[in-house]
Design brief:
Helix content is 53%, strand content 7%. It has 209 residues and is of the alpha+beta class. α1 (11-21) links the parallel β1 and β2. The longest helix is centred in the middle third of the chain and has 28 residues, at 118-145. It starts with a strand and ends in an 8-residue tail after the last helix.
Length: 209
């Protein structure tokens, strides 16, 4: 199997999961623009990462779907099974991070999708920031209520996705330092050997160094 990634994308969460589980999956890190080349478009016509290519040629896309597969195939902790309380909470957190938090960042990274003028793009960005602030307040509270620094009671794939979103936040006018539990979360993640391995495989540096 091969997992296609690219620096700065949500594919890092899947890369981290592979590292945590020591799963026999080859990491193929694309440079920016390679995802739009014919070779990769033959794998994922949308030109997005991550994409997990199976030995039989089947392709699985979408980070949360790939994380679910990795957990089911290689995860050894039965408490994260989806019919268990901790597994249900992990699924809930991943859904929130993917469908709401991640989706809201599109207003920052690609405002041109929602506006036709520079003034309109500026307004889209401001709306995105206004939406992101309470989302990160919620995530900060979740980490605090779990006695931190993990988002849930224990380290989970939701932490890998949260780590990406926190890195993205630092590329906006919003300060991660406004969310102290998430600062601690980022520091804990960047002391984790699996996270450091995944960052290295994608040519990325730690954010809190």
């Amino acid at each position: 199997m091969k997992l296609y990634t690219m620096p700065g994308t949500c594919a890092l969460a899947c890369n981290i999961a592979v590292a945590w589980e020591d799963a026999p999956i080859e990491i193929v890190n694309l440079e920016r623009g390679e995802n739009r080349q014919p070779d990769y478009l033959a794998i994922n016509p949308r030109g997005q990462v991550p994409a997990l290519v199976f030995d039989d040629g089947d392709v699985l896309t979408e980070a949360t779907a790939i994380l679910a597969f990795i957990g089911a195939k290689f995860g050894g902790d039965p408490e994260f099974a989806r019919d268990q309380p901790l597994g249900r909470k992990e699924a809930e957190a991943l859904s929130y991070l993917s469908s709401e938090v991640h989706a809201t960042f599109k207003g920052h990274f690609a405002p041109q999708r929602f506006a036709e003028t520079p003034q309109g793009e500026k307004a889209v960005r401001h709306k995105a920031y206004a939406a992101l602030r309470p989302m990160f307040e919620r995530l900060n509270t979740m980490a605090a209520e779990s006695d931190g620094p993990w988002l849930l009671a224990r380290k989970s794939y939701a932490d890998a996705y949260l780590y990406i979103c926190a890195r993205w936040l630092e590329r906006t006018p919003i300060n991660l330092s406004d969310y102290p539990e998430l600062v601690k979360h980022q520091q804990m993640m960047e002391s984790d050997d699996g996270v450091l391995l995944a960052l290295g495989r994608q040519g990325m540096a730690v954010a809190s160094g």
